[in-house]
Amino acid sequence: MVLIATFAAHFIAMKILKFGGTSVGKPDRMKSLVDLVCTNQPKIVVLSALSGSTDALVNICNLLHNHQKETAQNAIGELQVHYKKFIETLFGDNVEAAKETTKIIKSHFKYLHDFTLDMFTWNEEKAILAQGELMSTTIFYRYILSIGKKASFLNALDFMRTDKDGEPDYFYIKNNLSNEIKRLDNKDLIITQGYICRNVYGEIDNLRRGGSDYSASLIGAAVDAEEIQIWTDIDGMHNNDPRVVEQTKPIRQISFNEAAELAYFGAKILHPSSIRPAQEKNIPVLLKNTLNPADEGTKITSESESNQIKAIAAKDGITAVKIRSGRMLLAYGFLRKVFEIFERYKTSIDMITTSEVAVSVTIDDLSNIEAIEEELKNYGAVEVDQNLSIVCIVGDFLEDKHGFAHKIFGALQEIPIRMISYGGSKNNVSLLIESKYKKEALTLLNKHIFGLN
Ligand code: ADP
Ligand code: ASP
Ligand code: MG
After folding, report:
1. Interhelix angle 95-114/69-91, nearest 10 degrees
2. Which residue segments constitute the domains of the chain, with CATH numbers given?
3. Cα(56) to centroid(ligand 3), Å
4. pLDDT confidence of residue 9
5. What is d(CA 112, CA 114) in angstroms, rounded to the nearest whole number?
6. Quick one: which ligand is closest to 46's CA?
7. What is the pLDDT of residues 30-61, one digit of tens each?
8. Of 30, 92, 196, 338, which is the most buried if we count CB atoms within 10 A?
9. Which atom of ligand 1 is nearest to the CA of 21?
């Protein structure tokens, strides 16, 4: 009987609620999460580090790398003071609970401090960066207990893992997460870290900056969640980048494909890879605002409204590589050889255009650009152009009945366009421009397509 009950309990539909750095970055904000998470619905709460913490930890790593030990020690000291004050304000009169929590947090700072006493190598960077999420979850967990509520704490390093290619190991994650959950008494509120994981060798690693969204989606897929909620500081996915243009408006419904394109091409609200796990399991993703929980937010599902331009995003730091070769371009096998070079250096290509004499591609990872350029020279003259941005217009372009292409290019008459990709996907038209024109391009598109400034 007991066995059956435990087994059944494990399969109760769960929700995943992920809260980003700004949602936990101030004691008041963290307090306001209590009403959202202390309900009877079984849920896994995935937390980012307190806002600014990961940046501070990156800075500490850079200082250690540059042998600036004393400055690193000061930076660690400053961060510790910030955490101490945070805990004191959060726990208020509950001095005992504050003390206990401060003691645990102190051990994380001792761990950080120890890196300043020895030679620092980049291998240790990931362990340093992981402290942000480990501390935010500890503080929140302890706070929930201190106000008399029940919760369980799960260490993501015990189940989140990447494989030899650095991709999530779905099988490992599912099995280990399920085993970890089975061992918990309280399944109504399970608190764990976003972003952090272990690699194939068992070393501490992470899912790259902004990776907590990805963690939430991977966890959701692993437990077959009924919904994945991403709580942040804005009321859902907006039609344009609110950091760049003045007037933007939230989108209420968007498809997985559209959201994935927007995330990949610069909509910072979602980590570029975060849609895929949810989409594979057809789990709805809801984007919500912690500052305004009553707002409906954005729902991401498999449904798409056809014949609409949904949103615009832009991705900076793009480099165009052009290979010009009148002699070889049309020969079969040429493109394969070119792409193989990028593949060998694990450099993914975003946009591609070809003409009779040249092929141009864009990349955003420059770690191997010199070697790539050298090898490409065997096939023709190579030009490398930096400081570019991809502007991506997302919607349903299956049939351009409404003259969307005309609208897009009409809006951008004054902007020099370097490359165009149209038709590769029914959800995306991408344009390559110099980054200095990005604000103007996004503003013009906002005006002509959405009637906003
Ligand atoms: P979190 O810390 O919660 O993960 P992020 O800063 O990573 O939050 O993402 C939220 C931010 O994404 C917003 O504050 C907003 O400035 C930015 N953003 C960029 N593009 C968009 C967009 N299209 N819609 C909504 N937010 C966007
Ligand atoms: N804390 C990590 C970062 O700042 C992960 C995240 O917030 O999603 O990148
Ligand atoms: Mg984020």
Report:
1. 170
2. 2-233 (3.40.1160.10), 309-450 (3.30.2130.10)
3. 16
4. 44
5. 5
6. 2
7. 999 999 999 989 999 999 999 999 999 999 99
8. 196
9. 2
